[in-house]
Model the fold of this input.
Amino acid sequence: MKYKFPSLSAELKLMKEKPLPYLYEINLHKTKVLIFGLRHTQNPNHTQFELITKKIRDFSPEKVLFEFPDSAQNLFYSKDKEKAIKRIGEIRIISDILPKKVKRIPADNPQKTLLNSGLGNSEDIEILEVLIKSSLICKREGIPIKEFIQEELKKRNKLALFNKTSNYVKKLTGMNLDSVKDAQKIMPTPIDKYCRLNDIMRKFSLKRDEGMINRLIEELKTSKRIIFFVGRNHALRWEKILRNLSKE
Done:
């Protein structure tokens, strides 16, 4: 299904106005849904986990959806909990907070959603996923971008894609990962400067939004109470769409 997402300028305005984390409740087809727009973090002690714990206790979900691909499902039950949390901070929700009886569902499948989107092949999509994560975390936490990209590709057993990633960045930005450490220079915040790479990453992100909303709608059929943990910017994009769907 196609959805009408906010324009980039409207999204940037929402990002400035709305708090982080950002959450809202809606009723969709007789199912009560809590959208929890969180900060993606690799810090298991981030203060947002206190609010997450409270909301899970108060809301009592039957299912919890996550902005994870199917490939991350092995992390849900990893024996090395600390390593899993360092890779995806929200794993702490599963390992330490969520009651065992609650069904947990990876609701983001970028490979399946995007292979026919015209944005590239499976390797291109893998590179875009890494660059989006690099942009978010490196700009926020001041981590050198080349080293972060290398480590992220290594975690995915895709280190062989580093040269292709570097060439991709240079083609779209004119910058070399070997000489620029600051992610902000390679992927500037859209409100500061237009960037072709940011434009492609946004298109990629919107396609993922379509897939995740569709997955949420599918899960409504078999549950009365759902929480969806997703990055705050996704939650902002979805709110008007979901509120309109709740009126149908």
